[in-house]
Each structure stands twice: as C-alpha cells, then as structure tokens.
Amino acid sequence: MSKENNAHYVDNKKFYTEISAWKKEWDESIAKGEPTPQCTHYLGECFVKISNHLAYKSNFVNYTFRDEMILDGIENCLRYADRFNPEKSKNPFAYFTQITYYSFIRRIKKEARQTETAMNYLQSIDLQQLLDEVEGDSGSYEYLKWVQTQVDLNAKEKQNLNSISDKKTNKRRPKYFDKKSEELDI
Predict the structure, then answer these.
(1) Signed CA dihedral, 66, 68, 69, 70: sign only
(2) Residue of 55 and 164 predicted with greater confidence
C-alpha cells in the first residue's frame, strides 16, 4: 500500500508547511490584536489521524474508553497548536504525537481514579444487606452477587499491595565497598 493511500499517514513535509503558514497567520493576528485564525481543515485532519493511529498502539488498544482518549488527543492538539515553533523544529508530527501520547496517559490515570472512587463507594455500601433484602424476593440477582465478588477481589488485591509495600527491603552492601575500605585501612 502506498503512503498516499494509507488512511493513517500524515505527510510531515506538507504538515510542516501548513502549520508554519497557520502559525505565521496566528502570530500576525496576535500582533494586530485581531481574532486568531482557526486551524485549517488539513491540520484538523492530521490531528485526527495522529490520534486515531496512536490509539491502535499495543499499549492503548484494549481500553474501553479509547474513544475518549482519541478525543482528548485531538482537543490537546488543537489547544497547543499555537505553541509549535517552526523555527525550533521541522517535525510537527513528532510534536503533536507527543501531545497526544501524554493526553492518553492523563485519560488513563483519570479513568483509574474514577474506577478507584467507584470501588471505594461500593465498599462503603452494605451489599450483603442488599443481597439479603432482594433474596427475600423470588427474583435472581446475579449481578449484585457479581459486584460483591468484584468488590471483595479488589479489597484483597489492595490489601496484598499494601502488605507488599509495607515490607522493608534490606539493601545489600556491594562487595567492592568492603574491598575499598580494607585498602584504606592498610
């Protein structure tokens, strides 16, 4: 497949000329006190391609919130497009790929915090009481039982991690320190 037909290909030379021209317009409008220009269609297309392609890397592909990661990447590219300096770098593809990469990392951390908050909330609820109340009904509430097992597994995993981090690791003194101290004593 040729590079022109590849859906995820961004021509770095064309991207550089477009971003340089847009940045020049941006700087002129700031100097004149006029409203700043919007990103061109081509620049927006490049930001979308960069975000979509980066989302298919092996370290991002299996997240359920991948669409949010892509949207965060595009948003951050648009937000920081005016900070690209064509005089410093001739590689806007790398610049915006890094912006997108770190926006993905921020989204993963944010989702992890939200999951932790949800687990803490579920632990604070007395699920056993809910199970006892609904089992009095003739219905089957397998989902609540599954949630209870997930909360219990999370609590055990958290306890294991805390016990591992509480252990004090003894550092071994390197042997060459002993040799040097013997040499100094002689």
Answers:
(1) positive
(2) 55
Domain residues for the domain of 24 are: 1-124
Residue keyed to tokens 């040097």: 180
55's tokens: 């989302």
User: Could you say which of 105, 124, 143 is where a domain stops?
Assistant: 124
12 plus 70 within the same structural domain: yes
Say how far apart CA 139 and CA 124 lie, in whole Å.
25
Residues 35, 29: contact at Cβ < 8 Å? yes
Cβ atoms of 43 and 81 within 8 Å: the answer is yes
Q: Sorting pLDDT into bands at 50, 70 and 90, what band is 126?
A: confident
Same domain, 38 and 54: yes
